[in-house]
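ugh finaly. both done.
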Amino acid sequence: MATVDTTSLADRFRPRRETLLWGALILNTELILLLAYAALGSAELLSARGARLWVYPFVWINASIWAVARTDVASASGRNRAGAAALAVGYFGVLAYTGGLVGPGHDSLGFGVALTSLPPGWAPAVTYNGMGVSLVLIPYKLVGYLTLAYLVYATVLDAAGSAVTGVLGLLSCVSCSWPVLASIATGVVGSGSGIAAAVSAGSYGLSTVVFVATVALLVWRPFGRE
């Protein structure tokens, strides 16, 4: 039975000096953006609930930046890479639909961009309706779902090169279903109802916890390569 190298695991998650420096720069930039929006934005978002909505997007974005920076993609054959890419694209599609980024179109044709009516991370948000499809592209969700798809891609390649089979590797990634289930549970299904409904509906605290937990597990990938 394979053993977990706790020293290696600790080294993997211990922040590097350059990571701390970049993290401080990113956090300071985000703080400036939030303070600027607080001074210029809508007063109703200054409530306790509004303040939480300000923070959630940056948790997603920062966790995504950290995860991508810490993840190395294993070398693999072209066939394995193509299979992993197909799974990652399919996974992103499911997340995009259940997370409300993509949905069925409505009768009216429309296109819009929200720049200052929403806090940073929610904006700049793009909405589109027409040609049988509707889009509500909220930046933090788009970044988060792309990150999860990338981590799934790396996980599949890692599993394909380990003692376990690719299928068993995917089973060890059962947490990949958490963001999908959380999106359904919070009711943020692609209804094409626009940005206002997307911001006001659902439990974003639950979605954020699920997202961070999933990212952490996909970065850890608890099965060993030989």
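ok and the 2nd:
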Amino acid sequence: MRVLWLIVATTVAATQAPADGTLRIYLVRHGQTTWNVERRVQGWSDPPLSSEGRRQAARVARRLRRERLDAIYTSPSTRAADTARIIAGARPIVTLTDLRERNFGVFEGVRDSDPDYLARIGRPGDALGDGETSEQFTARVENALTTIRGRWSSGQIAIVGHFGTNTVILRSLLKLTERAADAIPRSSDDVYVIELSPRAPPRLRRLR
């Protein structure tokens, strides 16, 4: 499938729910946490948002306040759920366990520069002790996408996830390689819009 890939700064007026069968997915990463500051591997661990993380979530909320979202989906992790609540206002929030970050097993809490972690993180089939393999993680996130797309064939929704979760979403929906998805710059106050149309290639743009 050909992908129209537009990584551009785009200013967009309030968008109407699409009437042409297009599904727009607003992809958000949770705000900064205390462990992000310390460069620790988070996974299923549950550090809170930092004060900067709450400010980032508030900036995202301002960008999305005029978007007519049908629903906001979030990981159950506190950092994502709190980000979703700041964004949502009165809009409905749906929690999906399958949107959690990868379980990094014995490496949760270590610095992301740890040599053993770096040596094992990319190995196929390595569950990192009592965690998940990359294949298990990918299958889980794709199951969340199947659930979401089974509910929404068109309309506008937001997904509040994690760096790893959102990488899988980009790869799956845009048919990207892992390297191409990882190369897309994503700070905690970025919003990317994935447009899935029955009559055009998938499109990615950054919302300003």
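summary for the 2nd one i guess: The two ends are 27 Å apart (CA to CA).
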